[in-house]
User: Which sequence fits this backbone?
């Protein structure tokens, strides 16, 4: 008999919005949006009451308010969300050390060999959800299966406050009957392309050869070919390496003056410096993100030869990127991110190679 891993994907239900409703009883049962405002910005999260009106995260606040006129906007409190997220993570660690956080509100757990000695991942998931509710007052949903890919899909099935288990013997049927839009990694553009190729379900996808999928979807083709057959070998990684770190701001009014943009970039660089110091990391690639008043998005990047983490050096690179070309419109959002961090294995290897080369030159 084949040995399968037992993977749980825990996903908090409307996490940011639920925290706000938990802390403020007056918001309970009401349509609320975290982030943005009635005139400006972007929704970070929406309560289930708001979602009934089509309000979604990453939606313009103006559109959200149009969809739901009685929507209440609440300012985001990330320190509070991080605090509760840490309490939830401590619950996870009571069951296994193999916990891979994806964000503040979701994580993978490998409970194949768990600290409670419980052979049933389904019961472990239910126990964890009950404990989260007891300790925080919040609801969580869960997906349970043989790998991360299927567990993540399953966690969305019985939301909110539910769970679904896809047992090994049910994997094939589950994936074949799945709408292609439900496949993790298939976005709207890819789904539309698959539809045009006559691929609507997992069963349709399974009938296509690896060569066919690679021809039409490039490197992703092999991924689609494997996952529809239940093949996804990615392990739960408790020490996920951060690839980038950044911050952005949406403005209450559009900005057309580069002087005002520099003021905003200075504030953003200061925030990034604080986060970098807290995480004890530095990076080499600075990316400037610009969203114009017509909602078009542009990014400009520059990679330098040394690691930086100070506000001054980050701002210096961001300025150069800002002046790289003339603004094509007024700006509603600016963001800066730093990547190629010194936690990146590739970058660490490069640095080690440099040190060896320098040492050899001196020895010679």
Assistant:
């Amino acid at each position: 008999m084949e040995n399968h891993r037992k993977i749980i994907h825990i996903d908090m239900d409307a996490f940011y919005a639920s925290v706000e409703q938990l802390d403020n009883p007056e918001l309970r049962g009401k349509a609320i949006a975290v982030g943005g405002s009635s005139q400006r910005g972007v929704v970070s999260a929406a309560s289930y009451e708001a979602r009934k009106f089509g309000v979604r995260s990453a939606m313009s606040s103006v559109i959200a308010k149009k969809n739901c006129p009685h929507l209440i906007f609440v300012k985001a409190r990330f320190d509070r969300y991080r605090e509760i997220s840490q309490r939830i993570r401590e619950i996870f660690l009571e069951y296994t050390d193999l916990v891979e956080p994806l964000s503040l509100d979701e994580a993978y757990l490998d409970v194949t060999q768990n600290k409670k000695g419980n052979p049933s991942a389904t019961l472990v998931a239910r126990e964890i959800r009950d404990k989260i509710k007891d300790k925080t007052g919040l609801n969580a949903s869960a997906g349970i299966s043989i790998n991360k890919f299927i567990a993540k899909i399953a966690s969305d099935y019985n939301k909110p406050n539910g769970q679904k288990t896809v047992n090994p013997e049910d994997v094939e049927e589950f994936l074949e009957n799945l709408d292609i839009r439900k496949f993790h990694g298939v976005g709207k553009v890819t789904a539309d392309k698959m539809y045009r190729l006559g691929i609507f379900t997992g069963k349709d996808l399974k009938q296509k050869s690896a060569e066919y999928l690679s021809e039409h979807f490039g490197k992703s083709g092999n991924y689609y070919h494997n996952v529809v057959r239940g093949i996804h070998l990615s392990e739960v990684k408790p020490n996920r390496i951060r690839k980038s770190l950044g911050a952005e701001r949406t403005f209450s009014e559009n900005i057309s003056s580069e002087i005002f943009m520099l003021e905003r970039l200075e504030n953003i660089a200061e925030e990034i410096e604080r986060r970098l110091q807290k995480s004890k990391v530095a990076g080499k690639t600075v990316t400037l993100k610009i969203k114009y008043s017509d909602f078009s998005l542009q990014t400009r990047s520059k990679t330098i030869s040394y690691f930086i983490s100070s506000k001054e050096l980050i701002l210096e690179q961001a300025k150069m990127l800002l002046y790289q070309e003339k603004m094509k419109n007024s700006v509603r959002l600016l963001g800066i991110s730093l990547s190629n961090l010194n936690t990146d294995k590739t970058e660490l290897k490069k640095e080690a190679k440099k040190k060896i080369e320098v040492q050899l030159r001196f020895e010679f």
The CA atoms of residues 241 and 345 lie 9 Å apart. Residues 258-279 form the longest helix (22 residues).
